[in-house]
């Protein structure tokens, strides 16, 4: 089997379970919950000004904590860059990651503030 065959299978799998859509929806829901707290670091950016983009999806098949292979979906969280010095004129302020297994079950997720 070639890597392109594996890639095609993984793309079909991700599309079947709508992993990128679920990751983005979960990311937005978590951010909405976090920005209700006036002490949240996310409040500096105002939720409506945030831009969300799929960064990557990777197959994790050799992990120290889990013997089950998983697909990791990462959504980037950005603000528009008025100076246009960042890629796509977007400055990354964080990301959301979602791990799922073969049947599409979510086994872990986390939200990271990087700014």
What does this structure look like?
With 115 residues, the protein is of the alpha+beta class. It has one domain. It has helices at 3-17, 19-35; strands at 50-60, 70-80, 90-100, 106-113. The protein has a 4-stranded antiparallel beta sheet with strand order 1-2-3-4, covered by helices on one side. A hairpin with a 5-residue loop joins strand 3 and strand 4. The termini are far apart.
Short description:
The protein is an alpha+beta fold and 115 residues long. 28% of the residues lie in helices and 36% in strands. It has helices at 3-17, 19-35, and strands spanning 50-60, 70-80, 90-100, 106-113.
Regions with little confidence, pLDDT below 50 for 5+ residues? none
Run of helices and strands: HHEEEE
Query: What order do the strands of the largest sheet run in, or round the barrel if closed?
Result: 1-2-3-4
Structural shape: globular
> What portion of residues belong to β-strands?
35-45%
Biggest beta-sheet profile = 4 strands, antiparallel
Mean pLDDT: 92
Number of beta-strand segments: 4
Q: What structural class do the secondary elements suggest?
A: alpha+beta
Give the % helix. Answer: 25-40%
* Tally of contiguous helical segments: 2
Query: Measured on Cα atoms, how large is the radius of gyration?
Result: 16 Å
Q: Roughly how many Å apart are the termini? A: 41 Å
Tally the structural domains: 1
**Oligomer status:** single chain
């Amino acid at each position: 089997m070639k890597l392109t065959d594996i890639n095609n299978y993984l793309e079909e799998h991700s599309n079947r379970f709508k992993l990128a859509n679920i990751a983005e929806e979960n990311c937005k829901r978590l951010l909405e919950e976090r920005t209700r707290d006036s002490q949240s670091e996310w409040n500096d950016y105002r939720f409506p000004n945030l831009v969300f983009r799929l960064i990557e999806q990777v197959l994790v098949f050799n992990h120290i904590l889990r013997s089950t292979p998983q697909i990791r979906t990462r959504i980037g969280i950005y603000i528009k860059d008025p100076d246009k010095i960042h890629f796509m004129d977007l400055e990354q302020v964080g990301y959301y990651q979602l791990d799922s297994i073969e049947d599409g079950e979510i086994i872990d997720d986390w939200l990271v503030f990087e700014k």
